[in-house]
Amino acid sequence: MSKFIDKLKNVSKGYVRPMGFNAVASVPQPKMLLAAELGLEDLTDKEAFGGADVVIVSVGKASAKKLKETADMLGDTIWGVALGDKAADAEKMAKAGADFVVFSPDAEVSPLTALEKTGKIIMLENNLTDFMIRAADCLSVGAVIVDNQPDALALSWRKIMLYQRFADILSKPFLVRVSSNITLSELQSLWALGIDGVLISGSTGLKELRTLIDGAEWAVKRKRGHMSAIVPSLKMPASESVAPEEPEEPDEDD
User: Fold this and answer.
1) Region labeled Disordered — which residues (predicted)?
2) CB 12 within 8 A of CB 175
3) What's the CA gap between 79 and 39, in Å, rounded?
4) CA–CA dist 223, 69 (Å, integer)
């Protein structure tokens, strides 16, 4: 089972107060998870990913030796790989120690369904229709990442509305890609929608963002998922059904 998927699920469920007379232990209040996407060339030392809860590695055509070196450097840090639509290397990445794989909707199905212990995360564009978001929620994946165009990472009201759609429809944990200079109030706005984590590209601003998240108060998130359309029912309840009218008897004088 994927450690990162487990973390996301725990955050998504929210805080649960221990019950019983002997429940004195305090459960940490959930807070937003921080993921960083880095290329192999960026992983020069541990400082590159310090502060991230999880690292997503863009591996390209990495050799088995290079993957082994990457896994050794990351140590106890949870890490996965970004496959894009190239799912053929999924098994190789799993054998190298990847906790999960991230892929696009255009990735081939077979190599991914063969993974049993490795987590699967699908990356979706933020302009999908409601139907496609619902379809993604039914897939056998552990979580969703909502992606943005690299030149449009600033948080806008339009983007908040788009994320609101995902939060209302998805029941799976999900993250969104943001700029590393995102503010605390913006992070808390995303958290209030029900978003479980954020993903930044590169290591710039990673430590500052870690400090920001750790020092903040994280209120209880809104419940989300399984939004259904409101449509009028054409079927009348049995108790209120209208009995067929009986034909009127002819008047005796007629």
Assistant:
1) 235-254
2) no
3) 12
4) 41
Q: Cβ neighbours of residue 241 under 8 Å, at least 6 residues apart?
A: none
Strands in the chain per DSSP E: 33-39, 54-58, 78-84, 100-103, 119-125, 143-147, 174-177, 197-201
Both structure tokens of 46: 């541990």
Q: What is the pLDDT of residues 163-219, one digit of tens each?
A: 999 999 999 999 999 998 999 999 999 999 999 999 999 888 899 999 999 999 888
Q: Which domains does the chain have, with CATH numbers?
A: 29-234 (3.20.20.330)
In angstroms, rounded to a whole number, what is the distance separating the alpha carbons of residues 150 and 82?
16
pLDDT digits 0-9 by tens, 222-247: 666 544 443 333 343 444 444 555 55
Cα 250 from Cα 115, distance rounded (Å): 77
Integer Rg of the chain from CA: 24
The number of residues in the chain equals 254
Local confidence band at 1 (pLDDT 50, 70, 90 cut-offs): confident
The answer to whether 46 and 28 are in contact (CB under 8 A) is no
